[in-house]
Amino acid sequence: MTTFTCNVQTPGSIQCIMSAVNNSKFQAALFLVTGIPGQEDIHLWISIPFCLMYVISILGNSVILFIIKTDPNLHEPMYMFLSMLAITDLGLSLSTMPTTLGIFWEISHDACFAQLFFIHFFTLTESSVLLSMAFDRFLAICNPLRYDSILTPPRIAKMGLVCLLRGVSLILPFPILLKEHQYCQASILTHSYCLHQEVMKMACSDIRVNIIYGFFLTLFTNGFDLLLILLSYLMILKTVLSIASHRERLKALNTCVSHVCIVLLFYTPEFSLSVIYRFVRSPSPLLEIVMGNVYLLAPPLMNPIVYSVKTKPIRTRIIRVFIK
Known about the structure:
GO terms for molecular function: G protein-coupled receptor activity; olfactory receptor activity. Residues 60-307 form the G-protein coupled receptors family 1 profile domain. The protein is mainly alpha-helical. The protein has a single domain (41-183, 194-323), classed as Rhopdopsin 7-helix transmembrane proteins (Up-down Bundle), CATH 1.20.1070.10. The chain is built from 12 helices and 5 strands. Strands 4-3-5 form a 3-stranded mixed sheet. Strands 1-2 form a two-stranded antiparallel ribbon. Helix 3 (109-142) packs antiparallel against helix 6 (173-179). The longest helix has 34 residues, at 109-142. The radius of gyration is 22 Å and the shape is globular.
């Protein structure tokens, strides 16, 4: 059986040497991340905007958490869900940062499996949090009299715990299944981080279980979450249209603008990437790489910006902090 041994010569150059190996159970020691293929000469310049995005993401979400924690007026259900969203965004940023910024060019199998677990875990958890935030907006507009009695702090804490347990239980099979495979081909990843749908293709054993589980997980988690979010907004729209006052309609819809923007930022790149993986056949992986980076970097970057701009209590508190 023919296999490949790959060595990193320089930060932008990877040399692969083909060798004959008789042992069918040979397993490569490392995965190699490549950054953006074909752009090796400008990797240093590309790293600058990536660094800025990570700094803004981490600082922005940390500021949101600090403001919500220190201001008693923001200890309300809407802002408690927002703090959950900020925590998942921080986790997602920290999960991708080491390999995206080129701290490690070579990554062991165990480290790669751990990274993809946390990336998919935080992604799925963020989808659950966005669904919880949609439920929050639905209650606030469609059933305001019972809003405080339903979304009590203990119940919100339980909802957050369910989001975590859901993510762990559904994503944990990914690294377990991948660990059972043998990797006997050139394990060069096109992305700057490990994703299940790419790592499983590096295996030289049967990956049908991975394909089936990954497909149904995407369909019945993020797809189901998005469907429920759309249904909640249909009911919100129905309720808002029944309000006689035009001013009250705008006021009610304005409370949903931030969440709608975040939902679009999260789900549009995700489903676009899924379509590209399955239906677009391009000789260059550049489109997949760009969409993959947008999918994982845009939500943590834009979420604190959107809520800081569109949510007056958050914006006012941030201005006070920086003026002092």
